């Protein structure tokens, strides 16, 4: 579960987030939608304890992001479009490296790697290649596998399909739904509305650091006469 | 806690091991290049000097008496008449020139720019003139019925009173601090850059920071990897120096002996003659110095946005560290104060010099060790503070 309450983040004169609040329940995929620079990445980085909020609070899996950062990280996985893994290591070595921080060793680790590989359609042979020798899509799958290896309660996906080909993108979208069905809490952040339409249960529209709309996917679609992009533009115009 | 540090260090080292270029420049090259650096110039210059002594060179002459010309020929110099001595030497028509005018011999040679063949020929001409002068003086004394021993009323001897370790160290006394400083930095720099600014530039840092590992452990893990590479690189350089030096000494013993004019050839390269405590002191000093340098490099690397920026911060560090070594060359002219041993870099260089020469004391070494540890701690704290700053970590 994710609980965000009046969260704010300011960099000197720039207010990246201006007091946003929302809750995401277990088993739910929450779409955080907005244009580039709206504050999506900043919000997710705060939830992942990579940034500290200026004010307000947030809890991930019951732990406060500002005060219990290690506990939050144990229960969370994050992927963003620009995230990469070590190119000189093999896929297996990357997963071994990150898995060891979650007390995953030996047979337990092998099992988890097999589970993640199956879920993301990664062939075992690919895991023995160095990351630099993999395709962009496969590299991104390794990034995602690293984030889910410890089966976190909360998964944050920020523009996670950036750079993926059609097959890898399809695999990721299928994975998001499957992972939510395991009772996990997901935030799916993107500016591609069609992806959100496919995977999200609820959506929040964020613009210039403010949450301008929040509702169930069906309600949002009705707002845009069946089109999420139209709903997003309409809501932004109303808020302006 | 230690487990996470080791895991991170192992990952950093694994990345380095797979980078053959870095592996070659930090571990293989020092072994190959150190003996060449140490003995190559000596052997080359020694051979060139011997060949110059044994072969005949052309020397321009103006107004030189026949007796002197004969003396020059005996010294394996071929005199040829020229019009303008300065021009002839400048244009390399002759290696040196000798002019006799109004009772004065003037020798022309190209004496600037280090060891030149012209300088060696000038020495030959000087030798010939000295022999000619001695002959004239001896003849004149004999004509007056005076023995030549009047020219030497007493004997003059100079003895080296330096410690045995200092004598044995030879060039090592200067080179050990230099090599330690250079190789600790050059060995660690590629890993330090890759593990800090490199991670930022490649986009891998965020995934690591999202893992449940405290920042201090990430920092120590990266520091440990840099430390291992620094020490391996330094060991490679010293191994190259000792083993390569030994091989070259045995292969070219005659040439080295000839260059030294009969002195102990081993002194050319030097040989460490320390007791176990001396070696231990040297290792402790080097390790503490490595900690300081590594902490500074990691701090700079974390601040930098990219590989290039990190390298541009770290390269001047080498110049800063070499200043105390230059200072060391003139240390004999300065009355060393105890507090010099507590200065960053300066203390380490002075202590290493003292250890190699066998003049180190427990008090001065302790002063250097404690101060270096304190400075390393401060640098590490600065690196930690940099790592905590969002504007630094997400600077790219």
TrEMBL record, chain A:
Which positions fall inside the ABC transporter domain? 2-233
Q: Name one GO molecular function term.
A: ATP binding
The record ties this protein, via InterPro entries, to: AAA+_ATPase (IPR003593), ABC_transporter-like_ATP-bd (IPR003439), ABC_transporter_ATP-binding (IPR050763), P-loop_NTPase (IPR027417)
Q: A Pfam family this protein belongs to? A: ABC_tran
Q: Record keywords: Nucleotide-binding included? A: yes
The UniProt keywords, alphabetically, are: ATP-binding, Nucleotide-binding, Transport
- Family statement drawn from the similarity comment of this UniProt entry: Belongs to the ABC transporter superfamily.
Q: What is this protein called?
A: ABC transporter ATP-binding protein
Species source reads Meiothermus hypogaeus NBRC 106114
Lineage, opening ranks: Bacteria, Thermotogati, Deinococcota, Deinococci, Thermales
From TrEMBL, chain B:
Keyword match Transcription regulation: no
Q: Gene Ontology terms, cellular component aspect?
A: membrane
Which Pfam families does the annotation name? ABC2_membrane_3
Q: Where in the cell is it found?
A: Membrane
Tell me where on the tree of life, at the top rank, the source sits.
Answer: Bacteria
Regarding the membrane, this protein is recorded as: Multi-pass membrane protein
* Domain ABC-2 type transporter transmembrane: residue ranges: 20-381
Please name the InterPro entries in this protein's record.
ABC2_TM
**Transmembrane region positions?**
22-45, 168-187, 207-228, 235-259, 279-304, 316-333, 363-384
Q: Which GO terms describe its molecular function?
A: ABC-type transporter activity
Would you tell me the protein name for this molecule? Answer: Sodium ABC transporter permease
**What is the originating organism of this protein?**
Meiothermus hypogaeus NBRC 106114
């Amino acid at each position: 579960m994710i609980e965000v309450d009046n969260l704010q983040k300011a960099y000197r004169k720039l207010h990246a987030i201006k007091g946003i609040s929302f809750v995401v329940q277990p088993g739910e995929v929450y779409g955080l939608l907005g244009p580039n620079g709206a504050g999506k990445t900043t919000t997710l980085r705060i939830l992942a304890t990579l940034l500290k909020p200026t004010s307000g609070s947030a809890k991930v899996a019951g732990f406060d992001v500002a005060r219990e950062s290690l506990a939050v990280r144990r229960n969370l996985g994050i992927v963003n479009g620009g995230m990469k893994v070590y190119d000189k290591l093999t896929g297996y070595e990357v997963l071994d490296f990150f898995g060891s921080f979650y007390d995953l060793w030996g047979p337990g680790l092998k099992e988890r790697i097999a589970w993640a590989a199956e879920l993301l359609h990664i062939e075992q042979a690919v895991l023995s290649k160095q990351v630099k020798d993999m395709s962009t899509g496969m590299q991104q799958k390794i990034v995602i596998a690293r984030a889910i290896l410890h089966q976190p309660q909360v998964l944050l996906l920020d523009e996670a399909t950036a750079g993926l080909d059609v097959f890898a993108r399809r695999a990721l979208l299928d994975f998001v739904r499957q992972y939510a069905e395991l009772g996990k809490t997901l935030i799916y952040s993107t500016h591609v509305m069609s992806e959100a339409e496919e995977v999200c249960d609820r959506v929040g529209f964020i613009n210039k650091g403010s949450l301008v709309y929040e509702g169930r996917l069906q309600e949002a679609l009705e707002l845009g006469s069946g089109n999420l992009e139209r709903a997003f533009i309409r809501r932004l115009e109303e808020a302006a | 806690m230690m487990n996470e540090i080791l895991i991170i260090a192992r990952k950093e080292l694994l990345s380095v091991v797979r980078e053959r270029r870095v592996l070659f420049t930090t571990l293989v090259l020092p072994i190959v290049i150190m003996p060449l650096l140490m003995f190559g110039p000596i052997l080359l210059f020694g051979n060139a000097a011997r060949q110059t002594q044994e072969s005949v060179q052309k020397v321009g002459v103006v107004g030189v008496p026949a007796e002197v010309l004969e003396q020059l020929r005996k010294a394996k110099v071929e005199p040829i008449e020229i019009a303008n001595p300065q021009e002839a030497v400048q244009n390399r028509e002759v290696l040196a020139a000798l002019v006799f005018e109004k009772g004065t011999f003037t020798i022309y040679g190209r004496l600037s720019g280090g060891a030149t063949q012209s300088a060696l020929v000038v020495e030959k001409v000087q030798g010939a003139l000295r022999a000619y002068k001695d002959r004239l003086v001896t003849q004149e004394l004999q004509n007056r019925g005076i023995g030549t021993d009047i020219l030497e009323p007493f004997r003059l001897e100079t003895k080296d009173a330096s410690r045995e370790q200092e004598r044995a160290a030879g060039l090592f006394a200067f080179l050990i601090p230099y090599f330690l400083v250079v190789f600790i930095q050059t060995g660690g720099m590629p890993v330090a850059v890759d593990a800090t600014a490199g991670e930022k530039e490649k986009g891998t840092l965020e995934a690591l920071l999202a893992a449940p590992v405290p920042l201090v452990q990430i920092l120590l893990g990266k520091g440990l990897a840099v430390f291992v590479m620094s020490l391996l690189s330094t060991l490679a350089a010293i191994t190259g120096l000792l083993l390569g030096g030994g091989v070259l000494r045995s292969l070219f013993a005659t040439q080295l002996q000839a260059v030294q004019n009969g002195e102990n050839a081993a002194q050319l390269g030097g040989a460490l003659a320390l007791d176990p405590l001396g070696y231990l002191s040297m290792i402790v000093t080097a390790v503490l110095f490595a900690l300081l340098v590594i902490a500074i490099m990691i701090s700079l690397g974390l601040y930098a946005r990219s590989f290039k920026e990190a390298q541009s911060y770290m390269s001047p560090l080498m110049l800063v560290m070499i200043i105390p070594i230059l200072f060391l060359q003139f240390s004999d002219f300065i009355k060393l104060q105890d507090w010099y041993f507590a200065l960053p870099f300066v203390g380490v260089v002075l202590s290493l010099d003292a250890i190699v020469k066998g003049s180190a004391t427990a008090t001065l070494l302790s002063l250097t060790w404690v101060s270096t540890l304190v400075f390393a701690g401060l640098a590490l704290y600065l690196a930690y503070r940099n790592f905590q700053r969002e504007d630094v970590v997400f600077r790219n």
